[in-house]
Amino acid sequence: MKHDFYETLGVHKTATKDEIKSAYRKQAMKWHPDRNKAAEAEEKFKEINEAYEVLSNSDKKSAYDQFGHAAFDPSSGNFGGHTYSQQNGPFNFTWQSQGGGQGADFDFGGFSNPFDIFEQFFGGGETFSFGGQQRRQIPTYKIQLSFLEAALGCEKNVNIDDYKKKIKIPAGVDDGQRIKFQDFNLYIDVLPDKFFKREGNDVYVSQNISISQAILGDVIEVPTLGEKLKIRVKSGTQPNTLVRLRGQGIKDVSGYGRGDFFIRLNIVIPSRLSAKQKELINELDL
User: What is 138-193's CATH superfamily?
Assistant: First the structure.
């Protein structure tokens, strides 16, 4: 009987991606067979990585929340829909779509070996034994990038095994992604930005405007991924209005299109008004 994936990682069903990642780190460090010599360590490590591979993927997690372990068991029926399966190393992932229409074919590639997940977080170049087989792991290094470096791409000088190398980071890489080079992997750690927020390939910024600008309209300057841009605020703009710039977001790292750029207009209400200002507002009777 398989253990509940949430119990395996020690998280609640409402856990965020960051909480799931943090719980995985803790459990993986504890049960890695090269660190824990208990007889059950290898099997426990496999369970931990299987749980993380499902719960860290929104599509797999959704299927698991709906159907439990049956979502990945071809013998459990098709739930009135279609079945999609893929064998990846020690794990077999299957997703069943509901209803009689065409189902969406999700990519359940994930990681080909539990140690791949472990290395994404912890790096290392040792030779591991798993399932009776020796497997050589190329080293994984972590690099920190600013938001704009990740979004626009950049070149970085790095030291790999005491050798200086210039590497090219493609535009559109995201936090937590891993780039495979010929003799090493590079784990991407994107630092948060005080202006820009990323959702997929879309970018969001917040821009404050005054009450008079919202009522009367104005032309304001806002930051973008490139140069600052002037946009027109329409008269009568409402709080939290979103201005959408199509195709001005982040380029897809695979080269398939770009996201959009969203500007959220926040109307700032003054906390203190002069007597004259209060009088004028009362006269306007807004």
Answer: Urease metallochaperone UreE, N-terminal domain (2.60.260.20)
